[in-house]
Amino acid sequence: MKKGILLLFAAGTILVSCGGSKNEEAAAAFCDCFEQAENIKNAAGEAESYSDMMSAAQEQAEKAEACITKWKSDYEGKVDKDGFKEALQKQNEDVYKKAEEYWLIAENAGD
Fold it and tell me: What is the pTM of this model?
């Protein structure tokens, strides 16, 4: 009984922290991946030598790529596109603007 209550509480906590919807959960995960990608610049900027810079950038790039791959697996085609964009904009306006630029480029590349 206690274990069941604990699991219910944990599931409720996860839903609340993710905003309760798949779109909001996807937006939060997208922001996490974007942060991973931004960390590439930070890791490279903190390096003391060129080889350290390249090593740090490579490590962060691998983490970001793994995050993006997981995001695609978890959410791509499983969330409402417009709902996701709205949730992302609410989650982080800066990330939304940068993603919007990418989406425009991707749409124009299809022309």
Answer: 0.68
